[in-house]
Amino acid sequence: MAEATTQITVTPKQLGKHLRSIRRRKGLSLSEVARGAGLSRRELGAYERGKLPIPESDLWVLAGSCGVGPMILLSPRGERLDQQRVRSLAAGPGVTLICGRFEGVDERVLEAQGVEEVSLGDFVLSGGEPAALALLDACVRMLAGVIGAAESLAEESFERGLLEYPHYTRPQEWQGRAVPEILLSGHHEKIHAWRQARAEETTRQRRPDLWQLYTTAKGRPS
Fold first, then answer.
1. DSSP of 26-84
2. In this structure, are residues 33 and 66 in contact, taking their beta carbons and an 8 Å threshold?
3. Do residues 121 and 30 share a domain?
4. Phi/psi at 104 (nearest 5 deg)?
5. Are residues 136 and 155 in the same domain?
6. Confidence (pTM)
7. Are residues 211 and 113 in the same domain?
8. Which domain holds residue 175?
9. How many structural domains is the chain composed of?
10. Is the link from the previous residue into 53 a cis peptide, with omega within 30 of 0?
11. Best CA proximity match to 1, nearest among 126, 170, 159, 136
12. Measured between alpha carbons, how far is 70 from 51 in angstroms, rounded to an integer?
């Protein structure tokens, strides 16, 4: 992401300061944002100073006027987040994350503002904040310079349609369990082949859904 990702949890005392920070980071004047949101300059100034609570309808319009990228509501009924979507968000201009608390957001607002709903899985949390943190972490680690050995990202789970291969560290033997001999051989091609085979085996056993997609893409029988 070329710009900082914006996470908004609806806490009225902080919204004004947060809004002003976004506007200034974007290099937008008070008049430009007010005009884009259909507000008076006085109204927007009062919002930014925290003198007036920001109505939900104005909050959504202001997010769009500030050009903060797509708006995503963390919701158990949303589309399941996957690595492909993470890569897309990480390469984008930024995103506004909306975190509900106990209940959802008025459906009319979601429809009017074109909000995308995203889910981490088939479970429910008390609020969207933990899910937002997980999404942020997944995106940030994709940015250049965050991970020391960037090439290692290509071997992680889901990047090649497979789960990652097993890892081993020192000591060479631990509680009667030894590191596979092939990994100690120094033969890079054989090590690569072993890792590929184990990644495929693990995926086939643990995630038959991924294995089906992988074999279909490769033109192999499942």
1. TT--HHHHHHHHT--HHHHHHHHTTSS---HHHHHHHHHHTT---EEEEEEEEEEP-HH
2. yes
3. yes
4. -85, -160
5. no
6. 0.72
7. no
8. 150-218
9. 2
10. no
11. 136
12. 28
pLDDT at 2: 44
Structure tokens at 211: 């294995």
Tell the residue number behind the tokens 């596979």, with chain if given.
180
> Taking 60 as the threshold, does the pLDDT of residue 7 lie above it?
no
133-144 pLDDT per residue, tens:
999 999 999 998
Residue 202 DSSP one-character state: H
Tell whether 25 and 101 lie within a shared domain: yes
Is the pLDDT at 179 greater than 60, yes or no? Answer: yes
In this prediction, residue 39 has a pLDDT band, given cuts at 50, 70 and 90, of very high
Residues 96 and 193 in one domain: no
What pLDDT sits at residue 6? Answer: 55
| 118 beta partners | 79
Strands 177-178 and 116-119: unpaired
pLDDT band at 130 (very low <50, low <70, confident <90, very high): very high
Whether 136 maps to a domain, the answer reads yes
